[in-house]
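Morning!

As promised:
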Amino acid sequence: MAQEQKQPRKASEVDESVETAPESDVAERKEALDSDIDDILDEIDDVLETNAEDFVKSFIQKGGE
Amino acid sequence: MSVRRVMGTEVEYGIAVQGQPLANPMVASSQVVNAYASATLKARRARWDFEEESPLRDARGFDMSRQVADPSQLTDEDMGLANVILTNGARLYVDHAHPEYSTPEVTTPLDVVRWEKAGELVMLDASRRAGQLPNGAPIVLYKNNTDNKGASYGAHENYLMRRSTPFGDIVRHLTPFFVSRQVFCGAGRMGIGQDGRTHAYQISQRADFFEVEVGLETTLKRPIINTRDEPHADPEKYRRLHVIIGDANLSEVASYLKVGTTSLVLAMIEDRFLTTDLTVEGPVAGLRAISHDPTLRQTVTLTDGRELTGIQLQLEYLDLARKYVEDRYGADADPQTVDVLERWESVLDRLERDPMLCARELDWVAKLKLIEQYRQRDGLAWDDAKLQLIDYQYSDIRPEKGLYHRLAAGGRMDRLLDDAAIETAMHEPPEDTRAYFRGRCLEQYAAHVAAASWDSVIFDLPGRESLQRVPTIDPLRGSKAHVGELLDRSETAEELFTALTR
């Protein structure tokens, strides 16, 4: 996940610091989040069955229980 | 009681022979079970003992006649299908057209997760071995509940309950709970309707397959509350509540919460703690409506007139459970009971704010998140086959292919157990139930165990003409504390049997 800056702060300041996070931090975080999404989708692209339509058609089960 | 009780699960796996969509699933399932049996079982293979099975016994107090029963309900007839008992006390077998694994009896929600997860590894090992047979094609197993073309197969839970609890109380208090617990233990499904004709996402794999409120069937007209009553224990003291409404979970947290919260609600019913009536008008329709709305805003109407969402209905149970545990145990509540309550509250709270906050813990959210990400990146329409593929492949049990497994391997799913603990449970039984006795007998004396079941181990002893049956009717006897030392010092089955019957 995003690498957050860890600076020593008093407990009482923590809430405030989250609320007033500068714009650039938010943008940075969103960028990190987007790249995280890309990473996972790239990884899953590599393992997904290649022909989705054929696979879906052929996945037929009998009832059970 | 608390979250602790004698319980276990049974999971039927979807099965596919790669490159052969028309392969006979019964044959393939038998190959899976037999491949595991041949590779792992020593000496002879113990049969399943059907003597105590009574699948047509109804909890409402009558037996269905065999003539009117659907053939699929006659599960006690040994049809020669593969069926083995493992050294961890579990049962691996073929049920209709699916390989199935029943956990050994355990006493805590975390142990349910542990031995159910061990079952996934058993199935993985079994399917790989079956694929290596001469002329064998690769077989892939799926821990899901529907093919999205009209067929469904189960993931059942079993809870031992006091016989003295009126069945009507169970129906009254458990139905609203079952209608709503899917908000955290649904496995997610791409497709609405039994055959998936509407291309939309829903919370539960199973909701669309339930048609009545109470009944004995499991394969047709499925009921929210199943009345099968085979306690596999003293029927004067116990009933076994057979729960068929759940989804098969991959997520450890979802699985743990499913069993833990249900056990806790059953404890409140047994102790007559529930006096609030949360009865839902039209529970079957309500079950489906809640499942069909992943935004979780759908409400159901209670008979007292209130309109509650699935989360709000769960919050009612959570509130009662907190009061119950405080009232009965106070600060002495056991750690798992406390943990279940905390996680239950935390998950409901976050679901209410934004379901995506639970993507690391809940199957239906993790799956929906993937689907949404694909839609966003590739601009896919809801009817795109790729989204359906993601649904199926989420439940592929192969670690290199299954999407749940890829998420977990990347640290994107929260875990409760480490891999080593689960691998150990593939072979070792739980120590605090009769499964310990069963498992160790199979481990030590396989050549002389002719058959076994939940409530017996049958020995074939050298020099004795007839088979010797050791009943294990009490699920809490036969534990390590009871028989561990005896098993340690009995080198042969004969020694063990002599000591037991002295």
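Chain B is about 40% helix and 15% strand.

Hope this helps with the figure draft.
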